[in-house]
């Protein structure tokens, strides 16, 4: 889990059953830890998606020619 330096009190109305399922899935001890882990996962997924998108754009801009050797794309 990321080191927490700036904590602030927030008040949310959350689905209790959903929070408990997430807590169990993430093996978190507290509801706060559950939310922090979930946010960490969302940020990591966003970073992976951004890196994959950037790599895809670089690949397409490289001008590489893709040949359909099996004839499946036509």
Write the layout of secondary structure elements.
Layout: H1 16-26, H2 31-61
Helix pairs in contact: 1-2
Structure description:
It is a single chain. With 74 residues, this protein is mostly helical. The protein has a domain at 17-61. Helices cover 57% and strands 0% of the residues. The longest helix is centred in the middle third of the chain and has 31 residues, at 31-61.
Top keywords for this entry?
2 helices, single chain, 74 residues
- Mean pLDDT level: 91
- Terminal Cα span: 47 Å
- Helix and strand content put the structural class at mainly alpha
H/E element sequence: HH
Which spans have pLDDT < 50 for at least 5 consecutive residues? none
User: What would you call the shape?
Assistant: elongated
* Number of helical stretches of at least 4 residues: 2
Strand content: under 5%
What is the tally of beta strands?
Answer: 0
- Our Rg estimate from Cα atoms comes to 21 Å
Question: What is this structure, in a nutshell?
Answer:
By secondary structure, the chain is mainly alpha-helical.
């Amino acid at each position: 889990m990321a080191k927490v330096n700036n904590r602030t009190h927030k008040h949310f109305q959350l689905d209790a059953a959903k929070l408990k399922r997430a807590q169990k899935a993430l093996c978190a001890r507290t509801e706060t830890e559950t939310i922090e882990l979930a946010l960490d996962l969302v940020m990591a997924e966003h970073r992976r998606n951004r890196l994959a998108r950037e790599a895809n754009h670089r690949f397409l801009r490289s001008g590489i020619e893709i040949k359909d050797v099996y004839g499946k794309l036509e």
